[in-house]
Amino acid sequence: MNGRYVGLDLGSTYTKLVELEEHRIVDSRIVKSAKKEELVPDIRTNLCTTGYFRKKVKAEASITEITAAVLGAKHYFPECDVIVDIGGQDIKVTDVRDNRFYINDKCSAGTGAFFEFILSYLDLNYEAFANLEESSEIFYLNNTCTVFALSEIISHMANGADVNAVLTSLNYSFAKKISEIVPACRKLVLIGGVAKNAGFVKAFRNTINAEVLIPDEPQTVNALGAALYIQGKKGKM
User: 0.85 exceeded by the pTM?
Assistant: First the structure.
């Protein structure tokens, strides 16, 4: 691994790896966290971990998800004001202008796990959800708790709402919920697996009064941030 730097984001749902060589990404992979050992390199030098399970892997350095997100997001968009990281179990909002952050980890509503739970009930995969045509029929969910939200969805379906209307409404309901905890800003970076959902991204852009920027691979931004951290640290030695 001489001259190469690895960032490993050990999230609650997915584990992501980014490997850098001379500031270029030479490897980028994602696996379910149940199989995270597949991505753990044999050599632990030049390795930095981040994420929910970061302390489970011995590495040369370890940083918080907030630090990793800032480093990774600003690599793509140096001018960003706020970072919204929608993870598997929580939502993190970081204002890079004054180093303030907010973490919603009390409820999974709007997170990757929430969307996967609803999709499982509807017997849909995430790819189908992400590319679904937007419905003109939108209702906003009153409940944000996963169980009560599902109950409300079932009630709407019993009254005639189709799957497109349900999923469009999910996107807009949680775009609204998340936008309410985002500070006023000009440029916002959206990262995490949910940022791959085109329907949610459209709903979020239609809801929030800010320019929403998305990296080419929003799910590996924190792993990139970890790789940049260890690269910067070793470069100063």
Answer: yes
Summarised one tens digit per residue, pLDDT across range 56-70 is 999 999 999 999 999
The DSSP bridge partners found for residue 18 are 7, 28
Q: What is the pLDDT of residues 117-176, one digit of tens each?
A: 888 888 988 777 777 888 999 999 887 677 888 899 999 999 999 999 999 999 999 999
Domains and CATH numbers, the chain: 4-73+219-235 (3.30.420.40), 78-214 (3.30.420.40)
Four-residue CA torsion sign, 213, 53, 97, 185: positive
C-alpha to C-alpha distance for 93 and 85, rounded to whole angstroms: 6
User: Per the structure block, which two tokens stand in for 139?
Assistant: 């209702």
Alpha-carbon distance 210 to 207, whole Å?
9
Closest C-alpha to 62, from 78, 44, 75, 80: 44
Query: What is the C-alpha separation between 192 and 104, in angstroms, rounded?
Result: 14
Contacts by 155-162, CB closer than 8 A, 24 or more apart? 161/137, 162/135, 162/137
Cα of 92 vs its chain's centroid, Å: 9
Beta strands in 13-115 (DSSP E): 14-21, 24-32, 47-50, 61-62, 82-86, 91-95, 100-104
> What's the CA gap between 159 and 153, in Å, rounded?
10
Closest CA to 77 of 226, 232, 180, 224: 224
> Predicted confidence band at 237 (pLDDT cuts at 50, 70, 90)?
very low
Contact 49, 33 (CB under 8 A): no
